[in-house]
Structure formats: structure tokens, C-alpha cells
Amino acid sequence: MTAIPPARRRQVLRQSLSVGVATGAYGVSFGALSVAAGLSVLQTQALSALLFSGGSQFAFVGLVAGGPSGAPAAIATSTLLGLRNGLYGLQVARMLHVRGLRRALAAHLTIDESTAVGVAQPEVRAGRLGFWATGIAVFVLWNLMTLAGALIGDALGDPRTYGLDAAAAAAFCGLLWPRLKSRDAFAIAAVAALVAVLLAPRAPAGVPVLVAALSALLAAVWPTAHRDPAPPHHWADESEETADTTDDDAARRRGGAP
Amino acid sequence: MWTAILLACALAFGLKALGYVVPAHWLEGQRTSRVTSALPVALLAALVAVQTVTDPSGSLVVDARLVAVAAACVALALRAPFLVVVVVAAVVAAGLRALGWG
Fold it and tell me: What is the Cα–Cα distance from A240 to A46, expressed in whole angstroms?
């Protein structure tokens, strides 16, 4: 294996850093929303450092906002949203070949962004660099911005005055939007939303969201059902030399994901 | 609350780590991958709906949040970055409430 040429190295690092800055920036909204939901600054920081997966974190604080009774549903929803990180791990593991402590660290950094940048690189070595650089950049900036947001949120007072409850709903919209690339995805989203709203007055907080998640099963009986726009990239069947043929495709599918 | 937080963190890490240790073919079925990729869509759509039009008791309400989320969708359609989308929603909701509605 040859080393990555310096120009290529800079290119990958620049890409990683720009993804890190863009993603880290909205850590500020997570910090503020989490404190508005009633979590302490330390609890908020623990979620960003230890859970480290944006969608799951937003879901967790959204569902405990109504009080501790929402905790079981918050854990369940955040875990279901985290399932996709396990699928990313399957792909990334084949690229990284890491063991022991480095493997645990790689697992912790396996999120939408690091996987997307990693698998979008045509060469395996650049892919590894992209994965680690993006993962570390997002982790550092996401945590710093979470702290900033939590401190600002703490100083603000009543979250409703500042529209922070609406900001939480908009945050989920922003996470959902890039995934609505096909009619099937749109239909599944519509069914899930309808089920959740119809159940809301009749079920305890958080349960409607979990029941609505079952509408994902529609994809099982729907032969043309959509594919996740985030990373699925087939390392399994490709040698290192042919991986670049799917580069454009991976980049296109990744487009617009926060 | 700490118990819930740490449990959620442990489960999240467990899932990430699982991807590194299970044989890849376990999850490579066509049908399985369709469902797992549809799961975030269903969950996020349900969260948007519940957080936009229900109050803490679960009753349906139309207030400043619905207008704010509509504004956020317009921002998304215009390809605004994530942070701008969130701020637009907050500003619209805060503005409407300052005017005495919702």
C-alpha cells in the first residue's frame, strides 16, 4: 500500500473539517433544547459525549421534556434511531480493520457523517483518513457547541418565549428532510405521522412514536421501497480498485444530509 | 434521569459496537435492509408530528409551532443549512407568541 499523496490528504482533511464544522454548529441547538427540556448542563453534555448520535439525542430530550415518565419511551426511541449506526459499523469495519481499543473508539465515532465521508472516498486509505478525521472533528465540535448551547439555554429562561419547542420540531424536520428522497419514503413518513397523532391523546407520552415506528414494516412488503440516502455503500462485493465506481453514487445519496 | 441517560448511552454504544463484531451477512437481506433504512424515516416523521401538533397531555392543538414548522419546511426546500432551519422556526414561533398568538 502506498501513502496518500499530500494534496489528496489535504483534500480529505478539508472535507472532514467542513463536515465537522457544519455538524458541530447545530450542537448549539441540541444544547439549548436539552436544557429547555429540563436536563442539567452536565446531563446534556453526557448525552453529547457518551451517546454521540444527533437524531437519538434530539429524540431522547424531546421525549423526557414532559417529565421522567417519558424515560422508557425516550430510551427505546433513541435506541431504535441508533440502529442505523450498527449498520454503518458493518460497512466501516471492513474498511478500517481495527482491533481492541481503536475498534471501540471507531465504534463510538460511527455516525452518519463519519461513515458518509469515509465511504465516499475512492481509495481505502483516504476512506480511513476521512472516517477518523470527520469522526474526531464532529465529536470535538459537537461537544463544544453543545456546552455553548446548554449554557445559553440555561440563561434564557422559559423556552416557549424563544420558540425553542418549535425549534425542536424543526430539528426533527431537518433530520427527516434528506431522507424523503422517494415517494415510498414519503408514504412511510405520512403513515407514521398520522398514526402518532391519532394515538397521542390515547397513549402515554412516547408510546405513539414507538407504535408509529412500526410503519417502517411497510418497507418489508413494498418491493420498491426506498433506500436510506445516508451511506449504504457496498464494500462487501467490491475490491479496493473498483470501489471508486460507486463514489459518485454514494456522494449523491449523501447529498443534503446534515 | 441519570439512569435513563446512561442506559440510553450504553445501548447506543452497544449498537455501534455490534456492527463491528457481527458477521456482515446477518443483516444483508434485502427485506431487512429496507426495513432498517425505513425506520429512521418513520420515527422522525412521528416525532415531527407529535412535537408540532400535540400538547403535553397528547391533545391535538394548532398553535405557533405549526406555523413555525411550516416555515422550517420552506427553509429546507430552499436548501437552508440545518442551523438556519432551526433558528427560523424558533424566531417565527417566538414572534407569533410575542404578538399574542399561540
Answer: 38
Q: What is the CA radius of gyration of chain B?
A: 19
- Kindly report, residue by residue over A182-192, the tens digit of the pLDDT: 888 999 999 99
Question: A117 to chain B, minimum CA–CA distance in Å?
Answer: 17
In chain A, which among 164-223 make CB contacts under 8 A with chain B?
A: 164-177, 179-180, 185, 188-197, 200-203, 205, 208-209, 212-220, 222
In chain A, where the domains are located: 6-165
A57 CA: distance to closest CA in chain B (Å):
9
All residues at 6 or more sequence positions from A22 whose CB lies less than 8 Å from its CB, including other chains: A258, B81, B82
Burial A117-153, CB ≥16 within 10 A → b, else e: bbbbbbbbbbbbbbbbbbbbbbbebbbebbbebbeeb
Q: What are phi and psi of A65, to 5 degrees?
A: -60, -30
Look up the pTM and report it: 0.77
Q: Return the closest-CA partner of residue A66 out of A35, A38, A30.
A: A38
On whether any CB of chain B is under 8 Å from the CB of A43, the answer is yes
As for the ipTM of the complex, it is 0.90
Measure B6 CA to nearest chain A CA, in Å. 8
Which set of grid coordinates corresponds to residue B96? 407569533
Q: What is the DSSP letter of B27?
A: G
